[in-house]
# Entry
Amino acid sequence: MKSLIVVRPNAAAKRGGDVAVAEHTAAALRSHGVEADVVATLNPDARGYDVAHVLGIFEPDFARPQIAALRAQGVPVAVSPTWLDRTSFFLMEPKVRRALSERDASRATRRVAALRDDEDRLSRRPGRGALRRRDEQARLLRACDLALPESEIEAWLCANVLRPGSMPIAVVRLGVEAAAFAPRDPGERAGVVCVGRIEPLKNQAMLLFALRDADVDVTLVGGTHNAEYLALCRRWATPRTRFVERLGEDEMGALLARTAVHALPSWGDLPGFVSLEAACAGARVVAGTRGSEREYLGPDAEYVDPMDPDGIRDAVVRAIRRGPRVRYDALDERMRGFTWERTAAATADAYARAIAERPRPS
Amino acid sequence: MLVVRSNAYALPGGDIRHAERTGAALRGLGVDADVVATDDPDPRGYDVAHVFGVFEPERARRQIDAIRRHGTPLALSPIWLDLRAFFAIAPHVERALASSSAHGAERRLHALHRIEARLPWRGSVARNANRRLDAQRALMLDADVVLPASHTEAYLFSERLRIHDLPFVVAPLGIDDDALSVEAPAARSGVLCAGRVEPKKNQAALLYALRDVDVDVTIVGGTFDAPYLALCRRWATPRTRFVPHAPRGELLAMMAACAVHAHPSWLETPGLASLEAGAAGARLVVGDRGCEREYFGPDVDYADPADPSTIRTAVLRALQRPPRARGDALARRLAAFTWRRHGAATIAAYRHALRSERAAVSPRDASRA
# Structure
């Protein structure tokens, strides 16, 4: 079997979780006996391949020409939607950002609390742009032969929000690199770390706002394409906050190995490689509740709503108080269940289904 | 102590089987477990109390308050899904199906689908449903740990009920051994739907969808809703059979003999009848709004409970597929759902409850004190 994995054309310039998923999946598929190539293009050429696999409908301007090109070539098309319903994020996050721009913390707290109270009402009226985008994503999903969401939660959301009809949906969970479990320095752990591009979706400004009075060192690791948002993060930084734009793989491993808590109270991750890697590295983990984080991290992490600064602070403090984790604890065991070999096996099964069920031209 | 509703044995349902099977699995794993049917449980002498279901919030409130008075750690299997779509849309579907002709029903269903996404959420139905959700939220917040039966259910706790930091352990339901070992006849035929005849199970839409399909349809299950049964009969054909009750062995034999078990319910977690019919070798058609997908994956056909045309398409597709082979992908998938695994997850949840920071006295009790 030969698979062409298609990622967005700017993958090299702007790496992200989707590109990492494509590369890891391809490597694991090869080990599993499936020939797999990764291409970053809007116009993939699938001649000679048994199946094409598009990574993501989150950006319709990329997925539309990719899927159309593949459809025209008659090859079965699988898609990893990499999709969550972002309606609430698009609607609420700018308001939260404005609230966090208030002059003093008490006013910001009041405004955020009011927004939380109002979220249900506001979310019932998404903007026309958000609805158009969602409709387009639904059309893109329906244009494929098979969906491969990365969690049951994503599968449920795709099925219930995008309504792809009778299209088969096969969940393929992501893996964790074995290297993430490398033996750790048994030294003392301290501080809170948040790894990830500095951007509204990751919600670092709220994390810093929540921890502004907490007696703890906080390190944000990640670059940004959004100077304004970085400025908002700096607005709530304290003398104990450190911004690190980039770290090498080894340095990152070393940092996570001495971190007490990794906190990423994002607006929805799928499920956020950094949270998984931090869990593998032995840190306690605080994650958001609006994506598939729960399904991966299970009951042994702390969960927070991205709009709840008190909840975020309480969760981080609770995680710190729990003390260091022990090797081979329940979270460690859980993480060891997520292997790229399993991802490859499930993907290959799904490909076989897409190939078998694709109606042949008469 | 496993606590079920006081009328459990007068009105048996999936929640009771869930509790009984959990109790048996726990005992098999070395835990002393008793199932009690009461609204006023006395948990003295037990390490943990485990309540099944918040679908009747007032009853669950009495049970939970009684347990909390004794400071016993509380585990809760909510058996919960958000029923707002059911409350909002199902009455429209039923009114459409009550039309005097199929043509009229089609017209009304078509109109409904155009406006479904914009149906207003107001009036007494919305107020009552929202009140019910608030009550269910408060019940869950009183627990030390919750045991959703699926990741979807766990996700919806935070998404719909805004419960974010409550410890949870997903405990998938199991399949009884007798469903896995039932003898299947050489040839299968017909469509079966097993379950109480009620709007949530959506049998009327199933019968409407299959009214002109050349197939025998058997509806097995009692009802407490005579008007709904009448609506089902409205679309029955000479090839439709209603069986108000079938003993367990007979029901399993029917599952093993049917070509398709169709249960296009509004919401299930995930429907024990579908699990058992799948284990007995039937092809399955299930609803697509609950957590069915998490249990059945890509190996069954899904239908929108609000849209009889999708039910018809799904059943026809299932009927056209060749009979399932022993040990096929669905069988392998279902083999993972054992009560023993459910019991192990339950023990993990009890451990969370026992080390809960608030297990000793709930804030409610503290304020009373």
Chain B has two domains: 2-82+123-174+338-363, 177-335. Confidence is low (pLDDT under 50) at residues 359-369 of chain B.
